[in-house]
């Protein structure tokens, strides 16, 4: 069963990536801002909350902070695409066993874009492209007194907030006077270097920071293929109704001897960061 799920995940990711390759000429890269700080986080999340102990999916995420706009995205997914996309464009054979995609926080998030005071969440799910545009919401943080730890040699203090259906804890560094953090976690008097929810289903820990001083552009790769604009709650409903049929509809698969393999659809398990 596990092998089948890995094959399905690879087929889905490669189908999406093939579509991206076909549209490559139609991608418009926009420069939205200049990156002042770039923070890399080790991230992990639980997809199936019914399994105990938890099985974590892992990735590296990046937060690019500009003068006005921030961009939080999946660095591991970008690196995977850079490896696989040339093989697709060259028509080479791709071994599905080596093409299992990243399955941790595979989306991107902008703050103060497309307009100031708005956020934009984008995710490619199955063969569709979804976009959620909302007003900025700042968590109502409570500073926990007498809390202290050190992350990347920065002294940090702990804060807590009930936000988007989860209880979040965040360690922030006042010595980095930037009121930002990963995803929608911001609004503290210092950069958030570590964040996790009370159930330990999502965890982000900063492992590196670059002071780029605005020398690199903060970019958005805007596809010619228009994303479907939905609310975050509607996107969750779309995922809940997914029975696994769509991705297999036009897929033909064979074993190493060329014998056709019939893959059975299986409902995808997911655990949204926002509930």
Structure summary:
With 275 residues, the chain is of the alpha+beta class. The chain has three helices and 15 strands.
Intertermini distance: 28 Å
Give a quick account of the main beta sheet: strands, pairing sense, barrel closure: 13 strands, mixed
Question: Approximately what portion of the residues adopt beta-strand conformation?
Answer: 35-45%
Q: Percent helix among the residues?
A: 10-25%
Radius of gyration: 20 Å
Number of helices: 3
Q: Let me know the number of strands.
A: 15
Question: Can you describe what's shown?
Answer:
- The protein has 275 residues and is of the alpha+beta class.
- The chain has a domain of 182 residues.
- The N terminus is likely disordered.
- Helix content is 17%, strand content 41%.
- Strands 1, 2, 3, 4, 5, 6, 7, 8, 9, 10, 11, 12 and 13 form a 13-stranded mixed beta sheet that branches. It has a two-stranded antiparallel sheet with strand order 14-15.
- It is built from three helices and 15 strands.
- The two termini are 28 Å apart.
């Amino acid at each position: 069963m596990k092998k089948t799920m890995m094959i399905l995940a690879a087929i889905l990711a490669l189908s999406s990536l093939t579509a991206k390759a076909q549209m490559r000429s139609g991608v418009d890269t926009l420069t939205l801002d200049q990156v002042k700080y770039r923070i890399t986080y080790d991230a992990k999340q639980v997809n199936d909350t019914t399994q105990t102990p938890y099985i974590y999916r892992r990735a590296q995420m990046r937060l690019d902070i500009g003068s006005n706009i921030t961009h939080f995205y999946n660095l591991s997914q970008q690196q995977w695409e850079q490896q696989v996309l040339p093989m697709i464009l060259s028509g080479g054979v791709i071994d599905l066993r080596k093409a299992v995609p990243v399955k941790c926080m595979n989306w991107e998030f902008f703050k103060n874009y497309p307009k100031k005071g708005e956020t934009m969440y984008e995710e490619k799910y199955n063969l569709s492209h979804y976009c959620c545009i909302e007003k900025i919401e700042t968590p109502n943080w409570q500073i926990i007194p007498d809390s202290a730890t050190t992350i990347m040699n920065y002294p940090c203090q702990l804060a807590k907030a009930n936000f988007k259906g989860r209880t979040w804890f965040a360690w922030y560094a006042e010595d980095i006077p930037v009121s930002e953090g990963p995803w929608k976690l911001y609004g503290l008097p210092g950069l958030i270097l570590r964040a996790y929810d009370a159930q330990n289903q999502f965890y982000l820990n900063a492992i590196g920071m670059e002071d780029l001083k605005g020398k690199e552009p903060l970019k958005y790769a805007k596809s010619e293929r228009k994303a479907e604009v939905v609310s975050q709650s509607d996107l969750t409903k779309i995922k809940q109704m997914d029975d696994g049929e769509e991705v297999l509809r036009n897929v033909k698969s064979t074993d190493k001897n060329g014998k056709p393999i019939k893959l059975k659809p299986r409902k995808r398990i997911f655990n949204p960061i926002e509930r």
